[in-house]
User: What shape does this take?
Amino acid sequence: MISIIIAIFIFGLIIIFHEFGHCIVAKKNGIRVEEFCIGLGPTLFGVQKGETKYSVKLLPFGGACIMTGEEGDSDDERAFCNKSVWARIAVVFAGPGFNFILAFFLALILIGCIGIDKPFVASVTEGSAADAAGLQAGDRIVELDGHSVRVYREISNYLTLNPSKVDDELTIVYERDGETYTTSLTPVYDEEDGKYYMGFSGGTRTRIGPFEVIGYSLYEVKYWINITVDSLRLIFTGGVSVSEVSGPVGIVDTIGSTYRESVAISYFAAFINMVNISILLTANLGVMNLLPIPALDGGRLVFLIIEVFRRKRMDPDKEGMVHFVGLMILLGLMIVIMVHDVYKLF
Assistant: This one.
């Protein structure tokens, strides 16, 4: 039960921040916000503050920022549809943008508490590819196969996110005693584990100063955005099947199992892992909402960008129909993913 409550809290926090982004930027641009709600379905309770009703709905998932003239024409000069295209772009982009802002503040908490996994080699397996390449404990990896490296996870996740590289020779640039060296190695397949290994380990968390915390927190957000984009690339290229993608049911199960395993260690470990999952989820929601898919913020931005070049608004009825079709497709996909999630539970 506690894991479900934690999952609802995490989802709620992420969605509130997303919708608050739309709301605050809409108000700053003089757009009338009729209702700001948390959840979906019938209203449990609400309060009217000025022109906006703030309410809590029955179903504890989702939320909305309802603006006048958002879905069609309106005579109200403060309606969304009557504002400049750049004001509307700012309002639509603000939702995903606030997801990234939330990810940054959560990263400040995470890194401020436990530091960062700097890309130092902790140990090298004797006789491994890394050993043959001359790597030693204490080396700092600065570049892997042409990609700059700032955290160890970028190394450990590289082969997973780039399965086509497992049989390739990888170029590694590393620092040792203030000098920079370049070497290369080819990952070795372990039949027992069914995985490819480079032959070295690392990732020990290191405490850092306050200014470094800010810089690495920004990089943490960038890291999770890249992970989301790379995961989407794998889905579209067939590297990952739809059945391997998790929806709300799978995410709640993951949150629950992570919490139970973490709290067995300590409540602090559970807190840190919940913050880490929250960073992943809010960055993921930000990226997903920016995809140029009808019904999502990214789909709405496509129409607004077209309007910028056409200097004329798209037909609201036609745009609305496109978004409706996109919504139906997304709902269908969510049902498929949910069925797979439930199936995997049993």
About this structure: The radius of gyration is 23 Å.
